[in-house]
């Protein structure tokens, strides 16, 4: 005959296990819903790029922030040469703002002469490999390093924030090396 105390313990641990499973299932469902919502939001953002008012709407929104610097593409990237040229127009309509745009889309930059870029915009070509270089054909770049001595971005020592640093917006700085985290 099985020990009754053992049976109670087994039942309790089975109960805890099932509760954990239920939490994991719930979390997975929440995660899937979040991903779907993000996809929907990104799809509608991408569609909005083709709208005739996109340039003016973006410029009005950026000007309303009353900030001196703006970073493009916290998520996402350039979609086409046409999209890039629209961004140039937004920069021209926001002359009091310095724009920084990181990108991995070398294919589109190849069509753009540097002199065509608005003076208040810097486009940094991001290196694709950790501890690798950035594309050589473009004037400004960013790379990722695992060596803290090679990192030139001070954010890791500033609580992950830029604070007073504005290196990424400076055309005088050819490459920024971020520390891999
Ligand atoms: S280099 Fe400076 S501006 Fe660029 S991400 Fe790091 S802290 Fe921010």
Would you kindly provide a written description of the structure presented here, covering whatever features stand out?
The protein has about 180 residues and is α/β, with parallel strands linked by helices. It contains 4 helices and 5 strands. Strands 1-2-3-4-5 form a 5-stranded parallel β-sheet, with no helix packed on it. α2 crosses α3. It is globular, with a radius of gyration of 24 Å. The termini are far apart. The protein binds iron/sulfur cluster. The site of iron/sulfur cluster has 9 residues, from loops.
Task: Describe this protein with a few key phrases.
single chain; 5-stranded parallel β-sheet; disordered N terminus; 181 residues; 5 strands; binds iron/sulfur cluster; 4 helices; alpha/beta
């Amino acid at each position: 005959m099985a020990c009754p105390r053992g049976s109670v313990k087994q039942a309790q641990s089975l109960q805890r296990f099932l509760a954990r499973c239920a939490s994991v299932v719930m979390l997975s469902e929440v995660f899937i819903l979040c991903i779907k919502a993000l996809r929907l939001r990104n799809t509608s953002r991408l569609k909005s790029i083709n709208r005739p008012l996109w340039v003016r709407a973006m410029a009005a929104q950026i000007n309303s922030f009353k900030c001196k610097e703006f970073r493009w593409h916290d998520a996402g990237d350039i979609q086409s040469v046409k999209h890039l040229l629209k961004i140039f127009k937004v920069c021209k309509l926001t002359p009091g703002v310095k724009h920084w745009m990181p990108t991995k889309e070398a294919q589109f930059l190849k069509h753009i002469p540097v002199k065509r870029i608005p003076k208040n915009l810097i486009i940094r070509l991001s290196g694709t490999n950790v501890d690798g270089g950035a594309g050589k054909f473009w004037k400004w770049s960013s790379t990722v390093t695992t060596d803290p001595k090679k990192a030139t971005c001070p954010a890791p020592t500033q609580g992950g924030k830029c604070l007073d640093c504005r290196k990424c917006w400076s055309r005088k700085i050819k490459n920024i090396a971020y520390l891999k985290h």
